[in-house]
Amino acid sequence: MRRAAVSIPANIAEGAGRRNAGDFSRFVRIALGSMFELDTLLEVATQLEYVKADAARQLRERVGRLMRGANGLIRYQDIKRRQTTIH
Predict the structure, then answer these.
(1) What gap in Å lies between CA 43 and CA 40, rounded to an integer?
(2) Whole-number mean pLDDT of the chain?
(3) Does residue 32 contact residue 71 with C-beta atoms inside 8 Å?
(4) Fewer CB under 10 Å: which end of the chain, C or N?
């Protein structure tokens, strides 16, 4: 869970350091994959009773907000890239 959680901002930071929007979107998608992984691991940890259900629910809500933000950022970058290639 720690590895997945740490890879989220690391991939976003790496993508932000790239020179083009396509690379940035690709790294945000990788970060999104880590968010899905973290969400799944929280569910497994709950089922195995490693984490209390209420704590896991709160964490999964936060991960869900991050996912929505990442999806919005990907959509924005994709629209921006399409507009650039049209002109």
Answers:
(1) 5
(2) 93
(3) yes
(4) C
Average pLDDT over residues 24-29: 94
- Work out how many domains the chain is built from and give that number: 1
Which domain covers residue 44, as residue numbers? 2-86
Amino acid at 55: A
pLDDT at 37: 98
Nearest 5°: CA angle at 43, between 66 and 46? 125
Taking CA atoms, 26 is separated from 32, 45, 74, in Å, by 10, 29, 9
Residue-wise pLDDT tens digits, 48-65:
999 999 999 999 999 999
Secondary structure element (H or E) that encloses residue 75, with its range: helix 53-86
* Its pTM surpasses 0.85: yes
CATH number for 36: 1.20.1440.60
Q: Is 18 left (phi over 0), alpha (psi -120 to 50) or beta?
A: beta
